[in-house]
Write a structure and sequence with these properties.
Blueprint: H1 2-23, H2 30-44, H3 57-76, H4 79-91, H5 100-128
Helix pairs in contact: 1-2, 1-3, 1-4, 2-3, 2-5
Membrane topology: Multi-pass membrane protein
Transmembrane segments: 30-47, 100-122
Domain DUF1232: 32-67
C-alpha cells in the first residue's frame, strides 16, 4: 500500500513538472494555460484551501483537487504538446519549488472568496430585514 502511494506521489510530481513545461509551450491553448497556472499555483502553494492540520479533510483537498485539476488540464492540452512536455520533464528532472506566485494566487482566491461571502451575507441581511 505504501509503495503504491509513493508511486502515485512520484507520478503526480512528474505530471506537475510536465504541466509546468506544457503551460509555457506556445502550442498550448490559452484556456489550458490558465487552468494549468491555477492547478500549479494550488499544488505548489505553501497554503491549501483546507489546512492540512484539520484531520482527514486537510489532506482530502490535496487528494482530490490536484488530481482533478491535472485530469482537466490533460484533457485541454493537445496530446502532442503533453507528450513533448512529459519527455522534456523526464529528460530534465527538477525539484518542484514552493511557488511565490502560487502563494499570491491562492491569497487572491481566498480574498475573492471572503469578499464574495461578505457580499452574500450583507445581501441576505438586507433582504431579510
Amino acid at each position: 500500500m505504501l509503495a503504491r502511494l509513493q508511486a502515485l506521489a512520484r507520478t503526480l510530481k512528474a505530471d506537475l513538472h510536465a504541466l509546468s513545461i506544457a503551460a509555457r509551450d506556445p502550442r498550448t491553448p490559452w484556456v489550458a494555460r490558465a487552468v494549468a497556472v491555477l492547478v500549479l499555483a494550488y499544488a505548489l502553494s505553501p497554503i491549501d484551501l483546507i489546512p492540512d492540520f484539520i484531520p482527514v479533510l486537510g489532506y482530502l483537498d490535496d487528494l482530490l483537487l490536484v488530481p482533478a485539476g491535472l485530469w482537466l488540464v490533460r484533457r485541454l492540452i493537445p496530446p502532442a504538446v503533453l507528450a513533448d512536455a512529459r519527455a522534456h520533464a523526464a529528460a530534465h528532472p527538477a525539484r518542484l519549488p514552493r511557488s511565490a506566485l502560487g502563494l499570491a494566487l491562492m491569497l487572491l482566491v481566498y480574498a475573492a472568496l471572503l469578499a464574495g461571502l461578505g457580499w452574500w451575507v450583507v445581501r441576505r441581511a438586507h433582504a431579510g430585514g
